[in-house]
Specification:
Shape: globular
Low-confidence stretches: none
Mean pLDDT: 95
CATH topology: Rossmann fold
Largest sheet: 5 strands, mixed, barrel
Strand content: 25-35%
Bound molecules: hypoxanthine
Structural class: alpha/beta
Length: 236
């Protein structure tokens, strides 16, 4: 049963899908953390795998970059493959002085400059929020793992190279912790179809302090975040 962007059978995906942006990250997770991993999708190189973690079935599939891309995969996974939970595992740029590189940000809410919500025609501003159970679960696991995790608002933007250099400062003034490019559309898609979503981000660079991580640090931080997300995934 193929959809326009996923060539898999019903039942090929577990109820929880972890979503990194990068297809190579999806393969890395499958090869290094999952037992009995099998490739279930590779349309456009968007690698998706299903395997086992601690004996429980879980899937991982890339989202690609940006809200149009993640919303296509989330729509099809939720509506055609019986997926209940999508946990984004990505990177974000820090926008707050209390948030440092390598910290984890659990996105309680996702502000956006995207027009994605206009399709719902609500005549107001919809606030995209995480599923509370996933959010609380992730926070509890992060504490047990002694990882530094912040909970708060993030900013999902359509524009990586913004011509307006003041946007960071303006969102930061409102207490927004970090910027990435996917969570808001993921949260809206989950809400629309009565499903669950959470974005977990590691801070890879900092837009205010200019700090950035080395490739090795990024890998260690990424591994911590993956263990957190996998543990969360198999509990849900
Ligand atoms: N902007 C948008 N997305 C990002 C960034 C950024 O600076 N860093 C990591 N993801």
């Amino acid at each position: 049963m193929a959809t326009p962007h996923i060539a898999a059978e019903k039942g090929d995906f577990a109820r929880t899908v972890l979503m990194p942006g990068d297809p190579l990250r999806a393969r890395f997770i499958a090869e290094n953390f999952l037992g009995e991993a099998r490739l279930v999708n590779n349309v456009r190189g968007i690698q998706g795998y299903t395997g086992k973690y601690c004996g429980k079935e879980i899937s991982v599939m890339a989202s690609g970059m940006g809200m149009p891309s993640i919303s296509i995969y989330a729509y099809e996974l939720y509506n055609f493959f019986d997926v209940e939970n999508i946990i984004r595992v990505g990177t974000a740029g820090g926008m707050n002085k209390n948030v440092h590189i390598r910290d984890i940000v659990l996105a309680q809410g996702a502000c956006t400059d995207s027009g994605f919500a206009s399709q719902f025609g609500v005549g107001g501003t919809f606030c995209p929020i995480a599923d509370f159970g996933l959010l609380k679960g992730a926070f509890d696991i992060a504490q047990q793992m002694k990882l530094k995790a912040h909970v708060g608002n993030i900013y999902s933007t359509d524009v990586f190279y913004n011509d307006d250099k003041n946007t960071t400062e303006k969102w930061s003034r409102l207490g927004v912790l970090a910027v990435e490019m996917e969570a808001a559309a993921l949260y809206m898609t989950a809400s629309r179809f009565g499903k669950k979503a959470l974005a977990i981000c590691t801070v890879s660079d900092h837009l205010i302090t200019g700090e950035s991580t080395s490739a090795e640090e990024r890998q260690t931080t990424f591994t911590d975040m993956m263990k957190l997300a996998l543990e969360l995934g198999i509990r849900n």
